[in-house]
Write a structure and sequence with these properties.
This is Fructosamine-3-kinase. Keywords: Kinase, Transferase. GO terms for molecular function: kinase activity. The chain is about 45% helix and about 15% strand. It is an alpha+beta fold and about 250 residues long. Strand 2 and strand 3 form a beta hairpin. Helix 2 packs across helix 7 and helix 3 packs antiparallel against helix 4. The chain is globular.
Length: about 250
């Protein structure tokens, strides 16, 4: 095996290895091939990238709908064989199953990072208060109930590589969650032909009414993670997203 044709990751790779295996579903997006799994390292195929185009984006939207529809045992459930203590980027992320999305989202995806960002001085008092108001009103803001979806969990544009096979998933923080969270993360930092992705997704598995207005609600989680990792600029964005959620409720 040529060293220049693989990517080797070192450390605790259990969550990523389990996540990549879990994301391989019939009709779903291609996933970076896992070549070897060891206790302290993960060997992946190095992908040859090509440019995105509208047809590939539409195909990716349909495939993502199939991935989400493959489901999960519960909100917060880790992939089979994956640890409860995982990561998103360099931040810790706990995967603990819960019966209902709104309360789980607040408990395990918003408040831990809000507290860490506040303690680090990465989010101000007014922005913290806005996020806390969203948490207090989560039951009315969450939208219609949805079953747990099988999420990539860190689905920003850098974790979708365009190859000859289409939009290919890498670097997951996989868990059971709300499908709108993956879609909101796609929109957060820009994604090629996003309108085509969303149109094809909605045609394959229609989204609930009001999903566009809930995008900033689902972006609170990644924005707060970024505030913890990268500083106050993202804390201000989290506060702005929270105020948008409250204003459109």
């Amino acid at each position: 095996m040529s060293a220049d044709r693989v990517v080797v990751k070192h450390g605790d790779v259990r969550a990523e290895a389990a996540g990549l295996a879990w994301l391989v579903v019939p009709g779903g997006p291609p996933v970076v091939p896992v070549l070897e799994v060891h206790p302290d390292r993960l060997v992946l195929a190095r992908l040859d990238e090509v440019g995105a185009d509208p047809a590939a984006a539409e195909r990716f939207g349909r495939q993502l709908a199939y991935l989400h529809a493959a489901g999960a045992p519960a909100f917060g459930a880790p992939p089979p064989g994956g640890p409860a203590e995982a990561t998103i980027g360099r931040a810790p992320m706990r995967n603990e199953p819960a019966p209902a999305w709104p309360q789980w989202y607040v408990r395990d995806r918003v408040l831990p990072y809000l507290r860490a960002a506040r303690d680090a001085g990465s989010i101000g008092a007014a922005d913290t208060a806005a996020v806390e108001q969203v948490c207090e009103r989560i039951a009315e803001l969450a939208g219609p109930p949805e079953p747990p979806a099988r999420l990539h969990g860190d689905l920003w544009s850098g974790n979708v590589l365009w190859t000859a096979e289409g939009g290919t998933l890498i670097d997951p923080a996989a868990h059971g969650g709300h499908r709108e969270t993956d879609l909101a993360m796609l929109a957060l930092f820009g994604f090629p032909y996003l309108d085509a992705v969303l149109r094809a997704y909605h045609e394959t598995t229609p989204l609930a009414d009001g999903w566009r207005e809930r995008v900033p609600l689902h972006q609170l989680f990644p924005l707060l993670v970024h505030a913890v990792l990268f500083g106050a600029g993202y804390g201000r964005q989290a506060g702005a997203a929270a105020r948008t959620v409250l204003a459109t409720a």
